[in-house]
Design a protein that fits this description.
The complex is a heterodimer of chains A (564) and B (51). Chain A is mostly helical. Chain A contains 17 helices and two strands. Chain A has a two-stranded antiparallel ribbon with strand order 1-2. The longest helix of chain A is centred in the N-terminal third of the chain and has 36 residues. In chain B, 18% of the residues are buried. Chain B is built from two helices and no strands. Classes of the chains: A mainly alpha (564), B mainly alpha (51). At the A-B interface, α5, α6, α8 and α9 of A face α1 and α2 of B.
């Protein structure tokens, strides 16, 4: 397949090179497959934590928990992110993909690594969970599978950077790259640090598992592993924020409120976001409070500020575009008139609100050394990251996929009625999962325990309050709702690819992409579109919630740890 | 951002040059956490007085 063959999308006008298109499809489809696998394991985890159901025995629970974490946190997201990187470079810059053979090599390594990892864990002697803390040992092939996957992903990142060079050399764009491509550059940079950290620790651990290295320092393992484990979730943040900007542009024709501000916010991610990894180590011995507090309470807050900038500018850009197109009345007419029945919009907006209100605020609480102690290593932590990674990232990727299916695959979506409801089902379920896990964590329920009743432990008599059991039951019900939403997504997408009406080169009606809002439209009515009172009101609600929740946690701490 | 912002003298501002250079950003983005997170943390762990 020649790397210079391309088609022009009749709807978007984007130039789609055939190799790029095939690679995007392959990565995105595999991502969805691993989402399906990992989500199914998530159902088993939720139904086991629900004490009245308690589906799996201890051994199977930990094995399934390992598989759930790896499939959804690593394989699904990174496959999809590689698709996003190729889209943001080759497609948005209108140039061929650099070194497609290397791109396929990377893809093959990722696929081999992911499949091998699932097989090895299912064999039952690598039940070490995603973190695989030493000296708990897994099968050597477990580490090797992750190394293969990471090398494949790293190749994908360098193909992305190579494509930027191709675009510049071939002058396929003028001036700066588009903001979405800049967001993808941010994601790729974080990915490089993430994967290098993974290599630094997983290669010696593999050598340790086959007896070449005698021991691995457990503190150093945790520190470097979290450079991999937490930063991999920061790739998601940069990627899903880029997706928010894409959706604002394609659905509303919205222009960022300020390119400079948005790019500076991405730069703050590049500088500070990865340092947040330290919040996993806040109770570890061996590192000083200076190290912990600089990286979390200082540097991390700058990354949080960057997220707040994006959280303001994305809805702000939508509001300005809606006002420019005539929805000027009152404070929230622009939001009321938004296409809530379009899963691309509803998914994106639920992702934005859930990521900010649930994931963002709780992330700051976890990043403060003093109040972190209230919830460290409790179920609060999975509650937090289900809000960021699942409600935030996964839902944003789902939303984008609804838009990409007709654009890339030239297929019409099937089950449109179900698609309309899917983001609400998934969003509501995952909001419940996040809130109830955090509720249980606040009551002290540990994050990695099969049975909070401590059956068969021979003497542990700790009793959690009845509310903790209720929280886990509600979590189980929310998991079922989220899994129904997730399954609906997989059915709609896979079904559309197989059975959706072929669109060929016909233009889709109604149009799938909005015309960009013009300067004349923005400047009509004295430029009132630039005033974004609705977004500012939402931002104020966010700040009040943030401050209240932050200080409530200090109150909890004061009650937990009385001063005589 | 179709056109790069320029100063009155016609020069591209330094910040703009930084943002337009993905490889410089890559260097900064890898060096910053390597020093502040990995380097600093490992230095503290490996200089612990172990008896």
């Amino acid at each position: 397949m020649a790397n210079t063959t391309f088609r022009t999308c009749p709807d978007t006008g984007l130039k789609l090179f055939s190799t790029t298109e095939t690679l995007i499809k392959a990565n995105a489809v595999l991502g969805v497959v691993f989402l399906l696998i990992g989500g199914t394991y998530g159902l088993f985890v939720g139904l086991t934590r629900w004490q009245a159901v308690h589906l799996l025995n201890a051994q199977d629970f930990y094995m399934v928990l390992t598989l759930h974490g790896l499939n959804v946190l690593i394989f699904w997201l990174i496959f999809f992110e590689i698709a996003v990187l190729y889209f943001a470079s080759s497609v948005l810059l209108g140039c061929r993909l650099a070194t497609p053979k290397w791109a396929w090599t990377g893809f093959a390594l990722m696929l081999i690594g992911a499949v091998m990892n699932n097989v090895i864990v299912l064999q039952g002697n690598s039940t070490v969970m995603m973190t695989s803390y030493v000296p708990m040992a897994a099968d050597p092939l477990f580490y090797l599978s992750l190394i293969l996957f990471a090398v494949g992903a790293l190749i994908g990142c360098f193909v992305f950077f190579g494509t930027l060079v191709v675009a510049k050399a071939e002058k396929s764009y003028e001036g700066s790259v588009p903001l979405v491509t800049f967001g993808a550059i941010t994601a790729a940079i974080i990915a490089v640090f993430t994967i290098v950290s993974g290599a630094i620790i997983l290669i010696p651990t593999y050598l340790w598992s086959i007896g070449v290295v005698s021991e691995i320092n457990t503190l150093a393992y945790r520190l470097i592993w979290w450079g991999f484990g937490h930063s991999s979730q920061q790739i998601n943040v940069a990627a899903h924020v880029s997706v928010w900007y894409v959706i604002a542009a394609v659905l509303f024709g919205a222009r960022p409120l300020s390119e400079k501000v948005s790019r500076t916010a991405f730069l703050m991610y590049i500088l500070f976001l990865q340092l947040a990894s330290v919040h996993h180590l806040l109770v570890d011995p061996g590192t000083s409070s200076n190290f912990k507090m600089f990286n979390t309470s200082y540097a991390m807050y700058l990354a949080v500020m960057a997220s707040m900038v994006h959280g303001l500018t994305v809805p702000g850009a939508i509001e300005a575009a809606q006002r420019a197109r005539g929805h000027r009345d009152g404070m929230f007419t622009w939001l009321r008139k938004a296409p809530w029945g379009n899963p691309t919009f509803s998914g994106m907006f639920i992702s934005l609100v859930g990521f900010g209100f649930l994931g963002g605020i709780t992330g700051v609480v976890m990043g403060a050394e003093q109040i972190n102690i209230l919830i460290h290593n409790t179920l609060y932590v999975p509650g937090h990251f289900h809000a960021t990674v699942v409600l935030g990232t996964t839902l944003a990727f789902m939303a984008l996929t609804y838009w990409l299916v007709p654009v890339l695959f030239r297929r019409e979506l099937i089950l449109k009625g179900l698609a309309r409801w899917q983001p609400y089902l998934f969003g509501l379920g995952m909001t419940g999962v996040s809130l109830f896990l955090m509720g249980a964590g606040t009551l002290g329920v540990p994050r990695r325990h099969w049975d909070i009743g401590f059956a068969g432990t021979g003497g542990i008599t700790h009793e959690f309050p009845a509310a903790a059991y209720t929280m886990l039951a509600l979590n189980g019900m929310s998991v079922i709702l989220a899994v129904i939403g997730g399954a609906a997504f997989c059915v709609i997408i896979v079904g559309s690819l197989l059975f959706g009406k072929k669109l060929g080169n016909e233009k889709i009606s109604p149009p799938i992409i909005a015309q960009p809002v013009t300067d004349e439209e923005y400047n009509a009515d004295g430029g009132s579109a630039y005033a974004i009172p609705g977004t500012m009101a939402l931002a104020m609600i966010f700040f009040v919630s943030f401050a209240l929740y932050y200080f409530i946690n200090w109150k909890y701490l004061a009650e937990t740890w009385g001063i005589a | 951002m179709k056109d790069q912002d320029q100063t009155e003298s016609g020069q591209v501002p330094m910040m703009q040059k930084l943002l337009d250079n993905p490889f410089l950003l890559l260097f900064i983005g890898v060096a910053s956490p390597s020093i502040l997170y990995l380097g600093w943390g490992l230095a503290e762990i490996f200089t612990l007085p172990v008896r």
